[in-house]
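User: quick one
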Amino acid sequence: EPEVTQTPSHQVTQMGQEVILRCVPISNHLYFYWYRQILGQKVEFLVSFYNNEISEKSEIFDDQFSVERPDGSNFTLKIRSTKLEDSAMYFCASSEDRAGGETQYFGPGTRLLVL
Amino acid sequence: DQQVKQNSPSLSVQEGRISILNCDYTNSMFDYFLWYKKYPAEGPTFLISISSIKDKNEDGRFTVFLNKSAKHLSLHIVPSQPGDSAVYFCAARIQGAQKLVFGQGTRLTINP
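Assistant: Done. Structure below.
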């Protein structure tokens, strides 16, 4: 069964450093998403991406964050200058581009720890 | 953001019995609802969904019920199995949008 994959599974970084989280969405999916879950809190939407542009973003997704589809398979989230409060699990998800294809399928997540 | 609420942080059920997980929402613009299951250190796994034009959807042991007038949905698992022990999240999507709004989750424990 096709699945969303994410690398790395864990990332430790120093405050102020840049990190890039990588995702490979399910191959025939055209909508891509990033969510995060801070320890003990809800899963929160960050951004959705379709047709090579951001289609929706939350107030969390400020200028520190960017997303990119650098090739035909990868989808990345970049945090330019990490802060302590960016420590969280980051989940990538993807969904089909068709009526009835609204279900978003999630990857296993990347645990980011900012020191 | 309290648009989707799961008021029970935990639930314990005997193996073989029915598990009922509840979710309430406040935004009448939600048109699609999903239940996800999550094990520790893994991503949410999709279980079952329901469109706002339906009031019930069934898939094997899992049934989701939607009561639009009460803005309430529930997930029924029957019979419950030990492998069902996990955190269950309900999520909702606003019509025309992509983002999912999640509840806080309910930790389900199935006792042998």
